[in-house]
Amino acid sequence: MATVTPKALVEGILLTGTAATIYTTPGATTAVIRSMTLCNTDVAARTVTLYLIASGGSLGALNTVLSAFSLAAGETVILDSLFVMMTGDFIQGLASTTNVVSIRVDGSEVT
């Protein structure tokens, strides 16, 4: 019988100016993303790009789920789309400026 564990998949981190992995689905696990919260802590608008990449895949247009999304200064946006990730699938993200846009990802891991 499967065990579903609701959790913060990404507790909250600041995105960097180059694409970096922020979550990888653990072995023998399926992850279900329920929401992603983005917050621009800066005094100027910033953009965010997010990728959901299949295990063994690489960053590219095919894996883009959010492209150069503009966040106004101080703005918080909650993306409440449902995504399913298999073992080894991963999320990468970047912002137009390092250490000013935070991201939190909530969902469940199913084992």
Describe, in plain words, how this protein is organized in 3D.
The protein has strands at residues 4-14, 20-24, 30-40, 46-53, 64-71, 76-79, 83-85, 90-95, 101-110. The protein contains no helices and 9 strands. The strands form 2 sheets. Strands 1, 3, 6, 7 and 9 form a 5-stranded antiparallel sheet that branches. It is mainly β. The protein has one domain: Jelly Rolls (Sandwich). The model has no long low-confidence stretch (mean pLDDT 97).
Could you list the spans in which at least 5 consecutive residues all have pLDDT below 50?
A: none
SSE arrangement, N to C: EEEEEEEEE
Basic shape: globular
User: How big a fraction of the residues is strand?
Assistant: over 45%
The major pleated sheet works out as: 5 strands, antiparallel
* Number of H/I helices: 0
Mean pLDDT: 97
CATH architecture: Sandwich
Helix content: under 10%
Distance between the termini: 9 Å
The secondary-structure class comes to: mainly beta
How many beta-strand elements? 9
Radius of gyration, rounded? 14 Å
In CATH's first tier, which class applies? Mainly Beta
**CATH T-level topology:** Jelly Rolls
The structural domain count equals 1
Topology record:
Layout: E1 4-14, E2 20-24, E3 30-40, E4 46-53, E5 64-71, E6 76-79, E7 83-85, E8 90-95, E9 101-110
Features:
111 residues; globular; Jelly Rolls
Summary of the model, kept short:
The protein is mainly beta and 111 residues long. The chain is 0% helix and 59% strand.
